[in-house]
Amino acid sequence: MRLLRSTDLALRVLMRLAVAGESTPATREVAADMDVPYTHAAKVVAELQHMGLLDARRGRGGGLSLTEKGRTASVGALVRAFEGDGDVVDCEGGTTPCPLNTACRLRTALRQAQEAFFTSLDPVTVADIAAEPTGALLLGMPGVR
What is the pTM (predicted TM-score) of this model? Predict the structure, then answer.
């Protein structure tokens, strides 16, 4: 299974903010730190703000900060929210559905594997994934104070 770029970026933004301390970096700074386009980072930040995981304030003295809900958020729940509940494989897609669709066990097995993946991430929090030694690496990124 491969995560969407937006899922990966959402987790990295939250990790970056988890070690920010009193600093409130702007979305542009975080995008530069993560080496991603600003527009992509802005969309992810907007979704994380909508979810209540970070605060975003505009203007002088503004910036991004992690909320307590964001710090304690389950990585499994975050990945589910960004990835959606679609199947790992698209049995219905394209112009012709898979001919095995009505009697295939692969789809069920892959759905169970996907749920096991999410479940294994459920007890892990944003604070957990930003802890040492990762925290030190995050603090060492260019532009991180």
Answer: 0.84
